[in-house]
Design a protein that fits this description.
alpha+beta; 6-stranded mixed sheet; globular; 3 helices
Amino acid sequence: MSDKKYLIKLEDIKPLVSDSRGCVASNTIIVDGLKIGFMYRDYPDEDIENDSGWRFLSGTEDDDYLDDIENSQVMDINTVANYDPSIIPYLKNSRGIELERIEGTDKFRKLEE
């Protein structure tokens, strides 16, 4: 891992989900502490070992931010769930799903195409 200052120390990560596959999370969540505002599941990236396809964003990122690889981190799904446990009920969704947080709640809704 890089020398980023993550909000949760590795030794403080609790086992919340049994899925240990990889995912990508924005630094706005894991470094800055914003809640997940948008999540989607894509096809796994061959460059990410054991990738689940899940991507987690706060929703505040612009294209320039997302284009910079240093602004996100590959980690396991359980770690991201420790940052925002409200994602747990949605993790069994299939590829192609896009979800956004319902403002002021811990619930997400499916985005329509």
